[in-house]
Amino acid sequence: MDTKSFEVMLHSQYAFDKCRENVHTYEDCRQTSDPIPKDPRLCRQEARNLVGCYKEAEKMHPLCLAPFNDARECLFKSDGNLFNCRPFIDLYVVCQKDENEYQEILKNSTTKQRQPVIFDFFKHRGHFDRYT
Length: 132
Description:
Elements: H1 3-18, H2 20-30, H3 44-57, H4 65-77, H5 86-97, H6 99-108, H7 111-114, H8 125-128
Helix pairs in contact: 1-4, 2-3, 4-5, 5-6
């Protein structure tokens, strides 16, 4: 599988979560009861706000590279199974939302929790496959 698609998925999920209000504002502007679509120029400001929000949401703090790489590797090794990678994705989202909270998590973690994670879904299939 292509790891680029996992990167896009991780970033887009966080960006949509962060820019949800702007997305709804833009969609409300584009709504019409007529069968003829609205002129896009009427919603130019809402579109600019939405693009600006996504531009800011796509920036990643350097501290978040480690949880991002863990989530990406987990998704790659598990063939895109979000259920198995949820703890790593959640940790990445926490880091993106608040770097200080993520630093507190790191400071309070044990030495065993700080060790690199080995994603071996084939060898430990029973531990990760929750659908069987």
